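Subject: mismatched residue count in predicted assembly?

I count 376 residues in my input, but I want to confirm that the predicted structure covers every chain. Input:
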Amino acid sequence: MNSGNLYNHLERLSEILRTDLRKSGIEHGLQPVQLEVLHYLSVCNRYSDTPLAVTEYLGQTKGTVSQTIKVLEQKGLLLKRNDTEDKRVSHLSLTPRGSKLLDQLVPPPMLTKASDKLPEKTHKQINQALQQLVMALLQSNGMKSFGVCHTCRYNMHSKDGGYFCNLVKQALTVDDVERLCREHETAG
Amino acid sequence: MNSGNLYNHLERLSEILRTDLRKSGIEHGLQPVQLEVLHYLSVCNRYSDTPLAVTEYLGQTKGTVSQTIKVLEQKGLLLKRNDTEDKRVSHLSLTPRGSKLLDQLVPPPMLTKASDKLPEKTHKQINQALQQLVMALLQSNGMKSFGVCHTCRYNMHSKDGGYFCNLVKQALTVDDVERLCREHETAG
DNA sequence: TGATAAATGTATCGAGTCGATACTAATATT
DNA sequence: AATATTAGTATCGACTCGATACATTTATCA
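Triage response: the counts match. Full output below for your records.
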């Protein structure tokens, strides 16, 4: 019932972080959305590094995302390669410059500063609370969860201790399973 | 240390809510920022209903906010009155139409739906966690807290059970003390 | 008191966002 | 082989938002 109070906090939090991101981004010639795209690319897996996946993640239209990507490519922060199998799709990755820039700006120093002041226990609670909220939000509204393999119903453990995705039918590396996947479906 | 994970959740949450707000707002001809201004005006007290207070709350520049307010006024959702004492300042308030519209869109049905699915206990935890985070964020970065009188160092209880603000030197009503104030300074 | 500074708000400009629409090209379907 | 679907691009227009410049009113202080 009291989602009003919840919304108050979320809205304020959003506005503060976005304003901060805008400020720090502009010093490097980047817009908030552009940073968000770079950030997503740094945490997604190799099946989820396409313009469409970015579109789904950010909840915008593909036209919008296409523009953003174009700009980032021109700035030399992002690399676009064609998929070898499907000529319609392209894969995006950060260039060393893009990666370096992202490290400077994300997570925002402002947030790190604040979170450092909180006791470790509180920090964990907040983190967990947010995660629950995100999941509830996505689930209630039929959106893609974009989780990691550990929590995905398609994830299988193979005998040798490795991982195997039952959707794409391929073995996954240790690095793979720690990244966000657009095909993720919560197990259960 | 692990503010990266925290940021992941926050960014995602922000993006989802903002996209949703944009979508629902556009159906009524309103932009996300405009809704945020209306929302703020619905929860601030009479000392904090000026363009400058909105500016501080949203973290934008006064020029930007001035434009937004102008549009909202033209749409008939917001009323601007001159202060009787200081001719530089104006006070903003929602018109009945603005108030009604806000009720429909804020908090976003999407969020209410999600929060209803969570157990009451979890809900409370999330709420508390967010509040702590907002406070830490504001405090670490020297921003105004915009809290309610109950938690303000200027708030005094008078003998008759009423409230008195030691900064503006005026009695406050029960309604006053439940609203956000731009002069708020956390007690302690 | 009179000059200067500070505060509140407005006007205008330009770079950029973002949804809508229309489009191309490649792959799937039937 | 014809059609539908999917991934992505191009273009347009309404809007955002910081920057700069400005007007007016109030505060400061010498």
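Residues 31-33, 60-61, 63-65, 67-68, 71, 86-89 of chain B lie near DNA strand D (CB under 10 Å from a C1'). Marking this ticket as 'not a bug'.
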